[in-house]
Specification:
The protein is of the alpha+beta class. It is built from 5 helices and 5 strands; from the N terminus they run ααβαββαββα.
Length: 183
């Protein structure tokens, strides 16, 4: 029996799935490392370690891989608002949401990052890092728990008390809340 023809996206998803299996096998065998390869690593082990480092997550601007020395920010969840593309549970236009939040509408939209303040207060950072947020969501949709680097002050339009919603929860937040334990 012949296999059905795969689309390019299906083929790439299958290659990624198989690569993750290779990575998992190396982890079970106890020699996988995301850091520098050990001195005695074989050519195959070095290749699998490099594969694992690449597979760690879908890369995006501000993912912390290039900017390794910058601090990451722990997010409970995110919301993206854009002209003409609002979360389905919001009963307002983009312009109305911007007015309510207190920011000027931008063609690129805004990302709302829900996190914690210094005293563990719930806060929302309204940031211009929409592309970073799209990258986060691409990872989170695969169950890959990644955090972005702390935004630059120029990327933060304002910080509000409380969390904005409805939000897409990070995998870490889903684990903390136990939402999937009963599934």
């Amino acid at each position: 029996m012949t296999r059905p023809a795969l689309t390019q996206a299906e083929y790439l998803a299958e290659v990624e799935r198989l690569a993750r299996e290779v990575r998992s096998a190396a982890l079970v065998e106890g020699w996988l490392t995301y850091g520098n390869d050990p001195e005695g690593a074989t050519v195959l082990q070095r290749a699998v370690n490099e594969l694992a480092r690449t597979l760690r997550h879908h890369h995006f601007p501000g993912d912390g891989c290039v900017e390794e020395e910058l601090p990451l920010i722990d997010l409970v969840g995110v919301v993206i608002i854009r002209p003409g593309v609002m979360p389905s549970a919001r009963d307002e236009t983009y312009e109305q949401a911007c007015l309510r939040i207190g920011v000027e509408p931008r063609e690129e939209g805004w990302a709302l990052w829900n996190t914690w303040g210094k005293a563990q207060d719930r806060i929302t950072m309204v940031v211009s890092a929409v592309d970073t947020t799209v990258g986060l969501l691409a990872n989170w949709s695969r169950g890959v728990d990644v955090s972005p680097v702390r935004p630059l002050p120029s990327q933060i339009a304002l910080i509000r008390q409380g969390w904005s919603g409805p939000m897409t929860l990070s995998p870490r937040a889903v684990k903390r809340t136990g939402l999937l334990d009963s599934a």
